[in-house]
Amino acid sequence: MSDSEIHSESTSFPGSSSSSSSSSSNTNINPPEIDYTKLPTKKQLKMKDLPAKSKPWDQVELPVDALWLTVKECEFLSCVSQLNQGYFKSYNVELGPIYFGKIGGEEGTMKIALQRCKMGPDDAIIAVKNAARVLSPKAVFSVGFCGGLKDNLKLGDVIISN
């Protein structure tokens, strides 16, 4: 399928400048560009801001709803900043340090495990296999920038593998 077939139909979003339509049966909605300079900002976390002490592994509530896997420190800190207050670090012999927390609010929360791994597919596969066995997550998200995939990727793009 070519790019022209994929982008044969677009829909206008509030605040976007144009819309076009096609009689093609392929429906593809192109979201508006996001101006990251206008997003609300939180205090940027640094590694020294994170809890220094670990909770014992037997205090961890398993299974978790999702495992977030990161490589770079900035990706990891961005994920930590999305966790509700009360997140904590624990240590498992097989996994190393893992941060646990919740996201959500009045409508419900999800238990999140956050782990850093080494860069590269081999290390990521090992980390996911071990974490899946120990944490039993319902979903695994690799959080970060896949800049090596294509030259036209930019900050904010979402890459979904199948």
Protein described:
There is one protein chain. This protein is α/β, with parallel strands linked by helices and 162 residues long. It contains 3 helices and 6 strands, in the order αββαβββαβ. Strands 1-3-4-5-2-6 form a 6-stranded mixed β-sheet. The longest helix has 15 residues, at 121-135. It starts with a helix and ends in a 20-residue tail after the last strand.
Radius of gyration: 19 Å
The main sheet comes to:
6 strands, mixed
Name the strands of the widest sheet in spatial order. 1-3-4-5-2-6
How big a fraction of the residues is strand?
15-25%
Instruction: Please write the string of helix (H) and strand (E) elements.
Output: HEEHEEEHE
The total of beta strands comes to: 6
Tell me the structural class.
alpha/beta
* Helical fraction: 10-25%
Tell me the span between the first and last alpha carbons.
16 Å
Number of helices: 3
Uncertain segments are 1-25
Overall shape: it is: globular
Q: Quaternary status of these chains?
A: single chain
Overall residue-averaged pLDDT value:
76
